[in-house]
Amino acid sequence: xxxxxxxxxxxxxxxxxxxxxxxxxxxxxxxxxxxxxxxxxxxxxxxxxxxxxxxxxxxxxxxxxxxxxxxxxxxxxxxxxxxxxxxxxxxxxxxxxxxxxxxxxxxxxxxxxxxxx
Length: 117
What we know:
The protein has one helix at 2-24; strands spanning 27-41, 50-60, 63-79, 82-83, 93-101, 104-112. By secondary structure, the protein is α+β, with helices and mostly antiparallel strands. It has one domain (27-112): CATH 2.40.50. Strands 1-2-3-6-5 form a five-stranded mixed β-barrel. A hairpin with a 2-residue loop joins β5 (93-101) and β6. It is globular and about 40 Å long.
């Protein structure tokens, strides 16, 4: 009986320890930017400085789906080696690395990529 309790307590400890890690895990998704909304922009020499949202269109099981992605001032947006502003991504194929914050997808980096045929 004591052994069973120790196993249960250990399993709960591991589950609780993993939960915070899941909230900071980053994921990557590709799609086409169909719309952007700029809410603030203070350009920085090393990238970033624009905040707003972008609407990303992805293809899932042959069906187009759109998802909003929050972009904050620290999000780095690149096209090749150049830094670009959020509105310049509109109409482009992009790879977005994001994390989920308070139920929202929040971009940590955005890279313009070659469009898929």
